[in-house]
Amino acid sequence: MSIALVVFVALFAFVTVLGFFASRWRRGDLTQLHEWGLGGRRFGSVIVWFLLGGDLYTAYTFIAVPALMFGVGAIGFFAVPYTVMVYPLMFAVFPRLWEVSRANGYVTAADFVRARFGSGALALAVAVTGIVATMPYIALQLIGIEVVLEGLGVHGEWPLAIAFMVLAVYTYTSGLRAPAMIAVVKDVLIYVTIIAAVIVIPEQLGGYGKLFASIPAPKLLLGAASAHSLGPPAAYATLALGSALALLLYPHAMTGMLSSSSREVIRRNAVVLPVYSAALGLIALLGTMALAAGVQEMPQYASGFKAFGANYAVPALFLHAFPSWFVGVAFAAIAIGALVPAAIMSIACANLFTRNIYREYCKPGCTTSEESRVAKIASLVVKFGALVFVIALPAQYAIELQLLGGILIIQTLPPILIGLYTRWLHPYALLGGWLFGIVSGVGMWASLGFTKTTYNLVLFGTTIPAYAALLSLLLNIALCILLTPPLRFLIPKIAQQPAGTR
């Protein structure tokens, strides 16, 4: 057994122990859904900082963002400005959503939509969209672990199955407290890895000047617009904006924010979380460093690149640049960085299923303890489904399906974020806009061969490459506005509940 594997297993075992211990941390009645699924809504500024950081900056971020820089070039850097745009939105909007949810006992965004618009169908659409959009995201955390296991020379699905069985057990036992506690360790390991990488690797390559000089201009620069096409700048800008609008709508992001002890905790975190954006910029540079180091040409990494393509760039770079013991630390950081968001995502999906499908349609009179028990079982099913998804399909198909996540989840913006400030939009109009947005977004994705999400929109002879999620959202909102006046006239007003009241 190599030194790297020993270090990796030791750190993995340590966080496993933490996961089980977390059930005793800040004790609460875990037979209640708000205790199991939201940590009792008692997390303060520091814990929420680690939790949201572990929630939004996943192992796949550590793998995929550098892979885009490595394989495609500068356009992959859109991930940095989009995370910068997220936090003003978080500061302005989500304290209000937290306040409404806390006052009324809402556990999910679909709970809010159900009460706000008096429409079970609309709430069901929001819940199902959240679950479907999140499932491939969980699967991609598994791919992050698969990539580092390949780097450690561990092949086959059994280590992956063991890792997620352990995750399933301590999530079932401890709920959201487990990923909240483990997120602290995960972030320490990731920051240590990043700081070491941005110091040691450029020095080995002769400094940042030589590093950037060795990169071909098409990959180093974004490219310019032309007379008849807005080109890469438009794609870059719309990818950043669309991704920013979608990110905080994901159920796991909602779960992290609703676990806060106060609205001020969310505001403080909106101010300090951009530190992660700085870290993300450094992570993105790892792809450029891998390209400059030429790891793709080294025969010892050929099998990894064959199996995972550009996603193997960071593991190959670390194997090339660092001693074995530090490779173990770095790979453990990536793997633990997969476990934290995967746990939160599965809890968030379980909350949605239990509150907005099981209790609403299967057993309306279920007790709070039964609600918690069903959520725990649902979280196991979600993890098992993600595991089967990855084992059954080659990695590239999972990655392509994940592109659909942003297109789907962004369609819930009108009932959640716009609905937070106005009830003018008719619930049936919102439902129609949601459906039209999903159909048009998926249609654009399908027209691109299910491999890209940047759709070429032609207006007045000018081609505008734009993120399909953003274009479909605009269609969604336009239809909501157009349908609302006739629906409000033709259909009696559905009983709606004002935000902030029971």
Describe this structure in words.
With 502 residues, this protein is mainly α. It has a single domain (3-394), classed as Up-down Bundle (Sodium/glucose cotransporter), CATH 1.20.1730. Helices cover 74% and strands 2% of the residues. It is built from 23 helices and two strands. The protein has helices at residues 3-21, 33-38, 45-56, 59-71, 79-104, 109-117, 120-151, 158-174, 177-204, 208-213, 217-220, 231-247, 251-258, 263-272, 274-293, 302-308, 313-321, 324-362, 368-392, 395-409, 413-418, 427-447, 468-490; strands spanning 454-459, 462-467. Strands 1-2 form a two-stranded antiparallel ribbon. A hairpin with a 2-residue loop joins strand 1 (454-459) and strand 2 (462-467). Helix 9 (177-204) packs across helix 15 (274-293). The longest helix has 39 residues, at 324-362. The protein is globular and about 70 Å long. Residues 498-502 have low confidence and may be disordered.
Fold topology:
Elements: H1 3-21, H2 33-38, H3 45-56, H4 59-71, H5 79-104, H6 109-117, H7 120-151, H8 158-174, H9 177-204, H10 208-213, H11 217-220, H12 231-247, H13 251-258, H14 263-272, H15 274-293, H16 302-308, H17 313-321, H18 324-362, H19 368-392, H20 395-409, H21 413-418, H22 427-447, E1 454-459, E2 462-467, H23 468-490
